[in-house]
Structure prediction request, 72 residues.
Amino acid sequence: MSETWCVIDCGKVPSDSGCMLKIKAPASQVEDLLDAAVDHAVGKHGHERTPELREQIRGMVEYKEHPLAVAQ
Ligand SMILES: [Zn+2]
Prediction:
């Protein structure tokens, strides 16, 4: 039984820090994923914690069929 996973890949966002962080969660926990990603963007990249930031990050979420596909 497999569940769809969602992934945010910070390495795909242009940034000066060269951050390669990947965060993943089951699709049912996409809001938790966004919480973690917003914390990361605010804490490590100096973004402002706004609803717009959350929606921007939501647009970066990739959906993967299987957690093993996440590493690729
Ligand atoms: Zn990052």
About this structure: The chain has one domain: 5-71. The chain has a mean pLDDT of 89. The two ends are 20 Å apart (CA to CA). The pocket of zinc ion is lined by residues 10, 19, 21, 40, 44-45 (CB under 6 Å).
